[in-house]
């Protein structure tokens, strides 16, 4: 009798386990539970080339507008153009938060006479919500109470927020010699004075 009860219980448990182990993919598709599939497809979506080009064109204009407003020491425009967690790394290696940067602009410790950008290159991420801008900037004025008169290479990180595109960080590095100058020196013909 014990064997019969044990066999019955084992049969019921086995039947229960087997019925719960159906094909999950088929069950999910049949029941309309395709949320995971949609979410995964959204994660791999890319921006069409035309949209990427349009984003790049918009950001080039924003970079130029940013330079013009910064050259006018327009704190309101600076505030509107940058994210709340914006970070600036100056060509001297100092780092400022957005609040610190705005404070130096208001006090006059940061004041530009000129700021222009050239050679603007924009790389948009595949999702179309972020971009990196690399450009050459010519700047003259005062930055954090230090005089600046230089040509620098800048790297900007832009993020698409609910309020539109904003700059999240900016890093500047002095350009000490142009690549054209280096090429000229390397390609200079040798002269032999013993002829």
In short:
The protein has 195 residues and is of the alpha+beta class. The protein has helices at residues 2-20, 24-30, 35-43, 49-71, 75-81, 98-107, 179-186, and strands at residues 82-89, 95-97, 111-124, 130-143, 146-161, 164-174.
Tell me what the structure shows.
With 195 residues, the chain is an alpha+beta fold. The chain has a 6-stranded mixed beta sheet. The longest helix is centred in the N-terminal third of the chain and has 23 residues, at 49-71. It folds into 2 domains: 2-43; 49-178, Roll (Nuclear Transport Factor 2, Chain: A). It contains 7 helices and 6 strands; from the N terminus they run H-H-H-H-H-E-E-H-E-E-E-E-H.
Q: How are the strands of the largest sheet arranged?
A: 2-1-6-5-4-3
- Low-confidence parts, pLDDT < 50 over ≥5 residues? 1-42, 189-195
Distance between the termini: 118 Å
Q: What is the number of helical segments per DSSP (H or I, 4+ residues)?
A: 7
Order of helices and strands: HHHHHEEHEEEEH
Overall structural domain count? 2
* Class based on secondary structure composition and strand pairing: alpha+beta
Give the number of DSSP strands. Answer: 6
Radius of gyration: 30 Å
Shape: globular
Query: What is the strand content?
Result: 25-35%
